[in-house]
Amino acid sequence: MVNIEGGVFSPILSFDQTTPGTTNALQELVINSNSQKGILGNNLKINTLLQFQLGKLDLNGKTLTLSGNIVNTVSEGLIGSNSSSLIVEGGSYNPELSFNQSSPSSSNLLNSLTINSASKKAILASNLEVNTLTFTNGKLSLNGNSLTLYDNVMNTVNQGIIGSNTSSLLLKFTSNSPTLSFDQETPGTTNSLAYFEINSSGQTIILDNHLNIITSTEFTDGHLITNPSALLIFNSVASHTSASDNSFVDGPVRFWWPSICFPSGENWNRNATN
Fold it and tell me: In 10 A of CB 21, how many CB atoms?
């Protein structure tokens, strides 16, 4: 166990990397340092507990592997970056991931997030931005927060994303055409988004199963592929904006009201599913 406290310094934590997962592992790490932070000097694995009482943990371009739980006495304890990575594994806990929001697209950004926790889920406790999201096992609950994705989604298992009626997903892919797979345990809830945005120049996003839109969608650039087993479903009060020939849905859509201005693309005819 390591306890960082005092509030005067921001120590750099440098662990031996001879045997990854062993010599760079801790049972517990407690951050209790008001206005300061612990800074990873290299990769770290936490087996049982990461606790934020005061202060923060800066991933600093390194990889944090979390096999245990997180206790957030204070919020926004994790500081990410464009080169930082987080692996959630173990299958015993449902840790809440609370990222610093002081510099959006920087302090709440990860280069990669890997979910490898059988029968469990990681839960967002803040907005998060990720380059590559990988589902090896388990799920990621958006929990009413906003998730922004920039590079790719890798689905070794499906139904990895758990939505909600207040969650948002923003897709800003530049080089990949990923598949989105939503949890279907509670249709109309776990496969729902309040807001869904596609701004992925020249990319095609494939919907793996049904997605329910509660409030609105916005398609600026990029296409969404649907099929009868993977419908884009608009709630009775949902709306759509910013359709163009560069951004539309290719496939069936279900509406719960008589009419909508809907993006079907240039020189195409598509039918809504009642």
Answer: 11
